[in-house]
Amino acid sequence: MGRPTDNPKQLSTRIRLSDTDVRRLEFCSQKTGKTKSEIIRMGIEKVYEELSK
Question: Residue 24: left (phi > 0), alpha (psi -120 to 50), or beta?
């Protein structure tokens, strides 16, 4: 079922966003051609890398 992957996404979470946050997320998604989930994962990775230094 679905495309094979080395990193399956089996968990989900809900977040609350302001209208501004939603507009920014949609803007980033449109400009990069990435999904909203991918943009959020990129943000998590960026913060994680900064904190792990």
Answer: alpha
Vertex 18 angle, CA 7 and 39, to 5°: 25
Cα pseudo-dihedral 44, 21, 14, 52, rounded to 10? 20
Angle between helices 36-52 and 19-32 (to 10 degrees): 100
Whole-angstrom CA distances from 20 to 6, 14, 17 are 34, 17, 8
Give, for all 53 residues of the chain, the pLDDT tens digit: 677 888 888 899 999 999 999 999 999 999 999 999 999 999 999 999 999 99
